[in-house]
Amino acid sequence: MAQAKAIEIRQQATSDGAILFDAGLVAQAEFSADWFEPEYWRTQNAARLDAGGRGGVAVVQSPHGAWVLRHYRRGGMVARVMGDRYLWSGAERTRGFAELRLLAELNRRGLDVPRPVAARYQRHGAHYRADLITQFIDGAQTLAQRLRSGDVDARAAQRVGSAVARVHNEGAYHADLNAHNVLLDAQRVWLLDFDRGELRTPQRAWQLDNLARMRRSLVKLGAAQDGERAFD
Question: Which of the residues 131, 176, 185, 195 is marked catalytic?
Fold first, then answer.
């Protein structure tokens, strides 16, 4: 199997914003802003999965492999007012650009996270909308799916713990570490959705906070009978 090219981030201006993309995967002359639109892939008969939910996630079959398209949407009460709009504070602070650059760095460090393909922002006055494309990880299930099917043993739990420890040792903070954002395949454990994540100095306080969030997720899914300690 040919070795994957190194990630090479390039920027491309658009009429209402900009796009970052990995030139190691897609040449600039080939990249199209249409690729962020699920409807484009439907017209190409290339949509593999179109899931609802806050993230607006779709899986498509591109000429460069399977991709995950995600449109950023707000959650909670603020979603009623802002929907998918975010306050503008600079291109590099847009949700998609920040997550793409973080994923690129974590890939460079050899961590098991999806390879970023592209990110986009569309600015409208004081607000913007954002999208992200990452490579799809085939043949994997979320930890939540594995728990529901009863397919999590001590070895799988140890694999998950080791993956989280590796990310924490690199100082990678995950803002929403839960069983839906952990993927397991036959060989590896992947962490997904680094929206609002960042690189920090490794410290026990925020690492324990991450783990507590994960435990709460596991308890909700029935992985523990007597509280958060059961998956330790």
Answer: 176
**Is the full-model pTM beyond 0.85?**
yes
**Residue pair 64/25 in contact by the 8 Å Cβ criterion:** yes
Look at residue 174 and tell me if it is in a domain: yes
Same domain as 86, residue 59:
yes
Residue with tokens 């990880």: 137
Residue type (1 letter), 156: A
**Average pLDDT of each block of 10 consecutive residues along the chain (232 residues)?**
79 96 89 93 86 68 95 82 92 98 98 98 97 96 93 92 97 96 95 97 97 93 56 53
d(CA 95, CA 72): 8
Q: Roughly how many angstroms between the first and final C-alpha of the chain, as a whole number?
A: 37
Residues in the chain: 232
> Which residues lie below 8 Å from residue 99, measured CB to CB, with a gap of 6+?
116, 119, 132, 194, 195, 197
Is 176 assigned a catalytic role?
A: yes
Contact 173, 200 (CB under 8 A): yes
Q: How far apart are CA 134 and CA 231, in angstroms?
A: 30
Structural domain of residue 99, as residue ranges? 9-135
- Specify the 3-state DSSP secondary structure of 12: strand
Q: Output the domain CATH number for residue 199.
A: 1.10.510.10
Residues 183 and 89 in one domain: no
Q: What is the DSSP letter of 9?
A: E
